[in-house]
Amino acid sequence: MNPLLSYSYQAEIFCSIDAICAIVRLSSISDKKPFPNDRTVFMKKSILITGCSTGIGYCVAKALHEKGYHVFATARRPESVQMLLSEGLQSFHLDLMDSNSIKLAVEEVMRRTDGQLYALFNNGAYGLPGAIEDLSRNALRDQFETNVFGWQELTNLVLPIMRKQGYGRIIQNSSVLGFVSLPFRGAYNATKYAVEGLSDTMRLELKGSNIYVSLIEPGPIASQFRANAIKMLAKYVDVEKSIHYERYQGVLKRLNKEGPAVPFTLPPEAVLKRVIHALEAEKPHPRYYVTFPTYLFGVLKRILSTRALDALLAKSGNNN
Ligand SMILES: NC(=O)c1ccc[n+]([C@@H]2O[C@H](COP(=O)([O-])OP(=O)(O)OC[C@H]3O[C@@H](n4cnc5c(N)ncnc54)[C@H](OP(=O)(O)O)[C@@H]3O)[C@@H](O)[C@H]2O)c1
């Protein structure tokens, strides 16, 4: 056999073995219990969460409250705040599009905790579906205002508090779409890539500060995400006039589908499990994969060429 061919053949085998080991390692890591000897587990910890009206934010806020955390379950709509209050949670207004509401929310937390905050779970966001060529500057700007700039503004208000107290956890609800792209998810993809970039840099800049930044990377999770995406499509994209009119029918079919739109969809509790690890482990992981598609694409991204991965992703997102 040509030695070069044999070399590339061996390299491929090593890549495959590496990939399988990575899957096994990641699955076992994600199922580990938080370190039992972590003394902070036994303290009442405070956490500020955004986007608690529905889905992952609601699930995490409720569960952490029941677990004894001091939870600040924020939401942008008054009726959501009322709903959370009626369920016994501490809740107030926080709209990620509004700098003033972010500032007031942090001040409110400081008032209620005597100036301490153990953790921030950046979660509130939405997905704007649509072909990139159909998205106006305004549509893209709004998507970034909520999913990226609001998160970072909030984080930057919280970091000095954490630095002063000498510990903290920043948990970022990213996505599998923070490291692989699908057609008609360009705006959302771009915001999650941005969150990944900012988080990776923050992790380096916070080294040695006892403040840990963790990214959660869920695949499909049952929530109001698709229902909200339909509203955003109607608000920002003129489907009737688009060159992609036919493909939008597929997008709408997927978004309107009853029950899970894709296989391997998990309930929000799957994310909760990783959030708890990121909160309670002595050294939380920089990244937590959630759902089979995330593990799969995590491996494929490492072993496939861009061209091969593109072919797969284009096919996965072909009808929608
Ligand atoms: N579901 C999935 O398959 C999936 C997969 C990967 C990652 N994620 C991520 O998980 C997080 C939560 O999404 P979800 O699945 O739970 O969807 P969801 O049920 O639609 O919840 C999104 C939350 O974000 C809030 N929100 C939207 N814009 C906001 C703003 N300007 N200010 C404050 N809050 C705002 C929503 O509030 P309103 O009720 O007022 O709209 C809602 O509470 C997001 O970061 C999303 O990117 C979801």
3D architecture notes:
It is a single chain. Strands 2-1-3-4-5-6 form a six-stranded parallel beta sheet, with helices on both faces. The longest helix has 29 residues, at 3-31. With 320 residues, it is an alpha/beta fold. The chain has one domain (32-316): NAD(P)-binding Rossmann-like Domain (Rossmann fold). Helix 2 (55-66) links the parallel strand 1 (46-49) and strand 2 (70-73). It is built from eleven helices and six strands. NADP nicotinamide-adenine-dinucleotide phosphate binds at residues 50-57, 75-77, 80, 94-97, 123-126, 146, 173, 175, 218, 220-221, 223-225, 228.
Name its key features.
globular, alpha/beta, six-stranded parallel beta sheet, 54% helix, binds NADP nicotinamide-adenine-dinucleotide phosphate, 320 residues
List segments where confidence is low: pLDDT < 50 over at least 5 consecutive residues: 1-42
User: Which ligands appear in the coordinates?
Assistant: NADP nicotinamide-adenine-dinucleotide phosphate
How many strand elements?
6
Structural class estimated from helices and strands: alpha/beta
Q: What gap, in angstroms, lies between the N and C termini?
A: 44 Å
Give me the number of helical elements. 11
CATH architectural grouping: 3-Layer(aba) Sandwich
Text of the CATH class: Alpha Beta
What is the ordering of alpha helices and beta strands? HEHEHHEHEHEHHHEHH
Give the overall silhouette: globular
Q: Spatial order of the strands in the main sheet?
A: 2-1-3-4-5-6
The count of domains is 1
Helix share bin: 40-55%
- Determine the mean pLDDT: 89
Could you tell me the radius of gyration in angstroms?
A: 21 Å
Largest sheet: 6 strands, parallel
Beta-strand percentage range? 5-15%
CATH superfamily: NAD(P)-binding Rossmann-like Domain
The CATH topology label is Rossmann fold
